[in-house]
Amino acid sequence: MEDANGHPIAETSPSSARSEAAAAPATFAIRCGPNPVGRLVVTGPAASEPAVHASMAALASALGELADATSHTLASELVQGRIQQRSFVSLRAPEVPGYDLASHYEAARVIGGDFFELFRTQRRGHPIGVVIADVTGKGIAAALLMAFARPVIHAALDAARGPVDALDRTNRILVGEIRSGLFITAIAATLDPERGHVRLANAGHELPLIAPGDGGPIREIEGSGRLLGAFEHVAVPPVAVDLQPGDVLILYTDGVTDAQAVDGERFGEARLRSAIDSSRDGGAHVVVAAIRDAVAAFRGEVEPVDDVTIVGICRHRA
N or C: which terminus of the chain has fewer CB atoms within 10 Å of its end residue's CB? Predict the structure, then answer.
């Protein structure tokens, strides 16, 4: 770790022990609010690995959150809430032979309303459960609804007949129990790794994208119903897609496309597709990192207008 002026303040090994042949160091800013207060510098042969980049970016973010804690009670509690929230949106996906699973999450405020999960379900064959969701609104109210809804969707996807039934069950609970005036857009899906078969249900969320492994045009996975918590029936249609070798499936929240530059221009879907297209051959980690970096470069120093969440799944080539 280095301070804001680049002076080392902690090292895992002395500088003299570093290999001359090591890869170029990767640097991650540690920010206290909008202000950079230090840097996390990673050296060694694995410094350029996408998985290492994702882990170190998460670590730098967590260090910044700790630095942001002050003696002010509310500020300190909000920071602790954000750290706790990161345990809800784990950045570590399960290991699935034959697949890359990657993700990125950034809250617009101290705590946010996006959430996602990648997990092995308890059903026969243990298919991979996939959830991405976005609570309308931001801040504490959205985060509280997220904390309530996340385990509900997780449990429903474990117990239900499929993603459509899982979202129906979740919606019934939200309509019956929640009176906050906030709602949720969500995608629930299961992946059968043996066949590459994805069953998917979309409740008013951004349409997922597939970048085919054969180099074909990026396409949307159509089919969407009503958002969760607003109506008694969500009318979510069942959707199925088979991932072919090399295919990359991308799910995201509207914080990606709604990101704004200093002049107010939106990042938009065209730039999203361009970022995917330019990185699609690298697998899920590379694609998710490319989208993340494209959004950050476009936004510059502008504060995020919404939470940003990206999930990528790539089936390996034979």
Answer: C
E strands, 17-106, in order: 26-32, 35-42, 99-106
Domain residue ranges in the chain: 1-68, 93-315
The three-class DSSP label of residue 53 is helix
Positive or negative, the CA dihedral 174, 175, 177, 183 is: positive
Domain 93-315 grouped into CATH 3.30.70.260? no
CB 64, CB 30: distance < 8 Å: yes
Q: What are phi and psi of 74, to 5 degrees?
A: -65, -45
CA pair distance 241, 258, nearest whole angstrom: 27
For the stretch 42-73, pLDDT in tens is 887 777 777 777 778 878 877 776 666 543 44
pTM value > 0.90: no
Asked whether 107 and 114 are in contact (CB, 8 A), the reply is: yes
